[in-house]
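Comment thread on ticket #2218

A.B. wrote:
> Attaching the input chain for the structure job we discussed in standup.
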Amino acid sequence: MKVPLITDSYPISELIENNDFISADSNGADENVYINIEKEINRFEMYGRLKTDPLIETFNSELGSFDVEAPGRQSTGFTLSDINSELDQFDGQTMVVPEFEIESEMIPLPEFGNFEWVIIDSGRATVTLTNQTALTLGKPMIVTLFDMQSGNEIGSIIYDQEIAPGDSATSFLDLAGKTLTRILNVKLSGASAGSNDEMVDVDLNQKAYVGTDIGLLKVSAAAAKIPRQRVKRENEIVLNDSIQVDSAQIRDGYMEINVGMTFPLPGTIIFEIPGISDTQNRILRDSVRVSAAQDIRMHIDLDGYMLNLDLNDTGNQILKLRTWYINDGTGDAMVALNSSDEIWSQIELSEIHFNYLKGEISIIKVSIDPLSEDLDIPSGLDSLSLTLLDAELRLDINSRINFPAQLDMAIEGATASGSIIPLYLNENLDAAENYGELQTTQIVLNSDNSNIVQFINALPGEIYVSGTVHIGRDNWVGKISEDDYVEGTLTITSPLSFILPTQEIETKIDTIELEQDVRERIARHGKSGFIYGTVSNHFPFETQLQIALRTVDSLVYSQPEVVLGPVTIQSGNIDPNTGYVSSASLSEIQLEMSEQQIQIFDNPKLYAGILLDLPGSDGNTIKANRSDYLSLSIGARLLIKIDLTDDEDGL
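C.D. wrote:
> Ran it. Output below, let me know if you need it in another format.
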């Protein structure tokens, strides 16, 4: 009785067709087999990565010197009696008046109506001495000014000349650093040549006049009438950022401007930021009304604005802020002001995102989105304890970034045992030659420059890809947009040339189903049998074959009921010139079975497996072709004793 058991083939080509892990490269009549891993690296885009950090800058600007309304012109007169009381005796006479000394008392000037007091930073008084007497005044004549309230001397002017009757002399008094109240005292001193030997009518009511004309004053403090005036300040915001921006378009972001002052003058605050402009190239400029000692907060959306930055003397990029305070003036009222009174401003910049920017990027660090991929290793391949001799990793990076970059990547392979085999890449990426164009950089790792052979020999069931890209380089100016990206393909290949160690391979299990009448005949009349068949081996190594039988499929190899063999199967015929199998070897199988062993066929289902015992290649390299295979056609031939008197056999 014949019982078919196993008819099967184990071709490498079947593994290739059913799994992406292995591929073939046709080369004439030979088709070289490669282990092949190809994975797409997640594209990482620059969207959201072109940005500056938020910052807050506060500027306190003292008011400094400010204007007060011009005190104007004041004048007072000195009679001859005031000049020298000895002249009183000559009143009404016509005579020659001899020379004499002049030392007057202090006489107040009319009060100034525009201030109570001032501390002067800069300004001067124009002082004119007019001689309306019949006598010559000088030489010299001295006019001294005193502050009436404190009694302090303001200053003196010396007229080193003679002032004839009807003439006048003018000079200037620097008031810087002086404190004035609203009333000044004046004193005359010096000498007079008298009437210069001429007869004159002496009239004590004749006067010499002192006039002061004080123009616009810059003061550090005052209680005064304040005219409408403008105070300008310019500040710099230093942007300590890795992006040196020549120009950029803002996608989103905002600015908060807080302004205020501590002095009691309402007015208008105007600000402008010349480094920020709209699409019409108009710089960002705005104004706000402030009441006395009031703080104002403004919110400005920067979406769509252009950013253009300057560099300061130390090479840092800056954003300039110009402010003007224009007060309304006090009219006829007086207020107290001090140069230490403050105008302050606070600039708060949110995180600014750019659509694009042109400039110099020292470093932008971009993390690669981690990639985790299972590798579907063929069951036939991962059961072979291969030692692969060569491998290559190729990383094709496509970049649309107009800046050079540095790629730091880790590729980790996780094996079934839980160990991790790492590969590390540290490579330069070329910049796209032109903005908006793709630039491809190919990185190749092989046995000469990496541990790729160790990596692929581990046959990892899962790989993890992670890392960073450092974009930019000092002194490199380029253009980058949020639409730019970097993507790549990771390919690992290894020609299936290997050293084969000694090992066992359990092939797939076949199911054998027998009809009931056949089983009964075997059970009642089976005497013996044998396994027979042929094995065609196109693999480049020999093997020993055993057949395992069991009625429980999960126990075929671990606890077989019947084991037949081993039988040695010769390797395929290897061409010595190429190292590849040129033709298959054919082996015949015939293994005897005892009466007890054949009783296993008395089961509705029987499971059979082929156990291949590989002796290894003794350290020699083996090459595989896509056409390599191992095929079997195995059956059982059972001897049945026939009893002609057995009624059950119908005889």
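A.B. wrote:
> Thanks. Noting for the ticket: The two ends are 19 Å apart (CA to CA).
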